[in-house]
Structure formats: structure tokens, C-alpha cells
Amino acid sequence: MANQEDIFKKVISHAKEYGYVVQSSEIYDGLSAVYDYTQNGAELKKNIKEYWWKAMVQMHENIVGIDAAIFMHPTTWKASGHVDAFNDPLIDNKDSKKRYRADVLVEDYVAKIEAKIDKEVKKASKRFGESFDKTQFLTTNPRVLGYQEKAQNILKRLGRSLEAEDLVDVKNLIEELQIVCPISGSKNWTDVKQFNLMFGTKLGASAENATDLYLRPETAQGIFVNFLNVQKSGRLKIPFGIAQIGKAFRNEIVARQFIFRMREFEQMEMQFFIKPGTQIEWYEKWKELRMKWHLSLGMGEENYRFHDHEKLAHYADAASDIEFKFPFGFKELEGIHSRTDFDLGSHEKYSGKKLQYFDPELNQNYVPYVVETSIGVDRMFLAVLSNSLKEEELENGTNRTVLKIPAVLAPTKAAVLPLVKKDGLPEIAHKIIDDLKWDFNVIYDEKDAVGRRYRRQDAAGTPFCITVDHQTLEDETVTIRHRDTMEQKRIAIGAVNETIANEVAMKHWLKKTE
Ligand code: ATP
User: Fold this and answer.
1) Model confidence over 198-253: pLDDT tens digits?
2) Ligand 1 atom closest to Cα of 269?
3) Does the structure show a pLDDT above 60 at 161?
């Protein structure tokens, strides 16, 4: 595969061709930044959610899960700060008429400086060979230090201007850096404006008494407003967490990165309620635990990094992203935020209801502090899909396209293939499926030569193929072929279930998150 852009295009077309993701309402030319998950995509998405839910709710005695409504009382969004502050700074290029997020334009510029640093490191490591010390190089090489300083200064200035809502300075920064529109190549920019990302809608049958509502832009608030209901009914003691998976909606300004940035998407969020003063300890703990969850999937340690925020949201006293190396570079996959008592405190104020916890050890009431972990299901999906798609050259000179999805998440765990469509082989294959279907999602495939069927399953991401042939009639054995190694083994039909389970069972994978 050639450059990063080509790889990303390949991911998108593969997602469509193999039944993972398509644009919403495609027959009407699609809806921008809204996508549908087709048969394999729906399974992968469900498995990602289950892997998260089990790791968070089932594996932690002190975390419970809820499912709150998408519609919430409109005052919720006053209290949360979304009505006043859930804005993105937008800027238009007058020549291409394309709209951008001003902060993203600047961040992309900084990413280019960072790419230059990477290039210097690669060059030097080639030059010095074995004796190359990366840390020393990064901290002493004058050119690298210059790049680092430049990048930091830009980000600091951007952070300061956004914080102060100084949009004129954001525009100045774009002009000073001579950032051009990637489409028109021109520097003909409009002023920077704020744009609220919430979708509004109406509740009620007649226009006169309809209430203005918002589609929730995050799932977190459904957790905060239920904090006391859950704490009391579950008799939960601090520290404890409430988890939720659900849809969220944002009218994103720039939506050109497939399912990375959607207008309708899904979040997996967990709010962990703690004693004030313990937030940094828990924040660090959750950073570590969440990174372990990611690493448990074996998608390469080098593809993750933390990015601590310079600019903190209005509710946070510490925040970090887990970034993943997508085909378009390292970008946010998950956020871990220390939200203080901002949300509960604010809901107390707006609702007039006490949202406090009585701490029996301190013999005192307080508004708990919160550490949040928040990850987008769709972004996780994109991380898995883009990381798994490989083009491999085989020993015999041919190529294969294979989707090496972590087996625990794979939509279909095995395909059962009769070598030929006669001699009783299809019947045996169906019988094997009837046994396996209680435990795994499996499929039957009898079309084309078996080699082509293997390739089809490789490309669809199925970890195992089980082939029934004439020897099966004699000794009740089948060939089991492994997607990643392409190794084939003969095993008894009775051993198939266990062989698959050993590789795909959630339990084995979840153990690595501990
Ligand atoms: P970004 O800076 O990329 O817009 P954010 O910092 O606004 O993201 P959060 O509000 O922290 O994101 O949301 C938590 C998580 O939800 C993100 O880490 C991401 O995985 C996911 N997410 C946020 N917005 C979108 C979106 N428009 N489409 C898909 N996933 C999203």
C-alpha cells in the first residue's frame, strides 16, 4: 500500500465492500457525516461495546451501568455549560467555500512540525545505527529542539486565545503561520466565529406549547442527573462508578474523516465518583487502566500515546487523551478528565435539589468529585478496522488482503466450508454449524473453490475456517485454518468448539486488562 491517504481510502472502500460501514441514505446520495453499520459492522460494534461493558461494569464490583434517555430536560444543558460554551471556532476559506475548525487548522500545522521531528529521528537513527540514543537526540539536537519549541509556543498561544475567547488572535495566528486552505491553497480567510454544536428539536404536538429540546451531545449528563437515584437504590459507597453506552449528537463543522467525526455517534462513558482531594490519584489510576484495556487487544503499543491537555475545558482540573495512530496520524480516541464537582454542583444549583453524598467515615456530606473516561464507539471501530487491514505478500508471490481484527472482536468467529457441494459434505458442515451456533457467530459458505473462500473470509476478518472434506466422512476430522498464520491443522470435529473458544473467548482477553 502506498501513502497514508491511499490506505485510508482503502479502509473506507473495504468497509463498504465487506459489509462493515456505508454512508447513511446512500441511495439518496448520502447524508454528510452520518453512517450506517451493515451486517459485519453491526457485529463488530456490538463486540466492542460488550468488551468495554464487561471490562468496566462486570469486572468492577463498584461500577454499575445505566441506560438514560437521549432527550433530557433542557435545563440540563444550561447547567452543564453546553448552551453557553459548547462551541467550536469556525473559519471559512473564501475561495474554496470550505469550512474549517480554526483550532484544527493550527493543530494540523503543528502535526507537520512534529512529523519533521520524526523525520530527523529516523535520519539520525540510520546514521548512528546501534549506538543511537533517541532520548538524548530529542533533548540535545538543536534542530529538533527548535521544532519542539516552535510547536509548543503555537499550541500555548492557541490554548490561551481560545481560553480567553480571543477569536481575533486565533485568526492572527493562522495568518502569521501562513496556513493555507488544503483545497484552494489560498490564505483568503473569513474571521473566526463561534458555532454551537448542539442539535435543537421540539417536544410537543402543537407549535404553541412545544418545548425546545436538544439531542444530547454527550451521555455523561444522563449519569450526573441520576447520580442519587443510582447511589441510593444501589447503596453504593464512594468511590464508585456509573457507566453508560449510548448515542450522542453534535453538529460538527468539519466532517470529512469517515467515522472519525460524525454528527450522530455513540459514546461509552464512565463517571467515577470520589472524595474531593483524591482526584489526581484516581485520574492517574484511570489513565493507566484505560490504557491497559486498549493494549489488551494487541494492536501495538507503538500506536497509542497520551496527550495531556494544555487547554482545559470549563469543568476540568486535569485532562488527557489517549491518542491512536489512525491512517491520518495520531488523533484522540478516548478522553480521561478530572471534572471536579463542576457537574453535580451545577445541577444542584439549577435544580435546587441536593446532590450530595453522606460519607460515613468522615461523618459529613459533600458533593463528590468525578473522574470520567469517555471513548467513542465509532472511533474505536475505526481504530480496529484501520489497524487490522493488511495487504500481505505471500511466499508464492501472490497477495492477500486480510483483516486481522482481534479475534475477540471479530464479527464472525468461523466459516464452515464443505470442500464440494455433494457427497454428504454440506450436511456435515450444517451439523457442525448447528453445534457451534450456541456459542459463536458462525457462517456457512459453499460457493467457489475453497482457496477463494479462504481469501474471502480473510478479507472479512473471520479468524477460523473449518473445511469438511472426504476424509471427514471416514474419521470425523476437519481442517481448521487460522486467518493470521494461514496454518492448517486436522482436528476432530469434537475439538472444534474448544479450539475456537481458546482464541476468541472474552475471558482470555479481559484477563490482560487486569
Ligand atoms: P474532538 O476534539 O475530536 O472533537 P472531543 O474532545 O470533543 O473530541 P469528547 O467530548 O471528549 O471529545 O468526547 C469523548 C469521545 O467521544 C472522544 O474521545 C471521541 O472518541 C468521541 N467523539 C467525540 N466527538 C465525536 C464525533 N463527532 N464522532 C465520533 N466520535 C466522537
Assistant:
1) 999 988 877 777 888 999 999 999 999 999 999 999 999 999 999 999 999 999 98
2) 14
3) yes
Chain mean position to CA 5: 20
Cα(290)–Cα(7) distance, integer angstroms: 28
| Count of domains observed in the chain | 2
Angle between helical axes of 102-128 and 142-163 (0-180°, round to 10): 160
Range list of H helices, 129-239? 134-140, 142-163, 167-176, 220-224, 227-233
Cα 62 from Cα 60, distance rounded (Å): 5
Q: Is the pTM of this model over 0.85?
A: yes
> Residue 252: inside a domain, yes or no?
no
Structural domain for 188, as ranges: 87-196
Backbone φ and ψ for 87, nearest 5 degrees, come out as -120, 155
CA 376 to ligand 1 center in whole angstroms:
6
Q: Give me the phi and psi of 341, to 5 degrees please.
A: -100, 20
Which residues surround ligand 1 with Cβ inside 6 Å?
A: 218, 250, 252, 261-262, 265, 267, 332-335, 374-376, 378-379
Q: Does a structural domain hold residue 220?
A: no
Residue whose CA is at the smallest distance from ligand 1 atom 3: 332
CB neighbour list of residue 265: distance below 8 Å, 6 or more residues apart: 247, 248, 249, 250, 259, 376, 377, 378
| Cα angle 326, 329, 334; round to 5 | 60
In a domain, residue 43? The reply is no
What tens digit of pLDDT does each residue of 171-184 get?
A: 999 999 999 999 99
Among the listed residues 429, 267, 232, the one whose alpha carbon sits nearest the alpha carbon of residue 337: 267
Question: Is residue 333's pLDDT more than 60?
Answer: yes
- Distance CA(40)–CA(5), nearest Å, equals 24
Closest ligand 1 atom to the C-alpha of 252?
Answer: 27
Q: Rounded to an integer, what distance in angstroms lies between the CA atom of residue 64 and that of residue 271?
A: 10
Q: Is 189 domain-assigned?
A: yes
Unique residue bearing C-alpha cell 418545548: 211
Residue identifier of the C-alpha nearest atom 30 of ligand 1: 376
Q: Among 133, 163, 196, give the residue marking a domain's end.
A: 196
Angle at 421 between CA 418 and CA 422, to 5 degrees: 105
Q: What DSSP state is assigned to residue 26?
A: G
Using an 8 Å Cβ cutoff, are 53 and 508 in contact? no
**What's the CATH number where 457 sits?**
3.40.50.800
Q: What is the CATH number of the domain that holds 176?
A: 3.30.40.230
Length, in residues, of the chain: 514
Residue nearest to atom 29 of ligand 1 (CA): 261
Per residue in 5-62, pLDDT (tens digit) is 889 999 999 999 999 999 999 999 999 999 999 999 999 999 999 999 999 999 999 9
DSSP assignment letter at 367? P
Say if residue 288's pLDDT is above 60. Answer: yes
**The last residue of a domain, from among 146, 173, 196:** 196
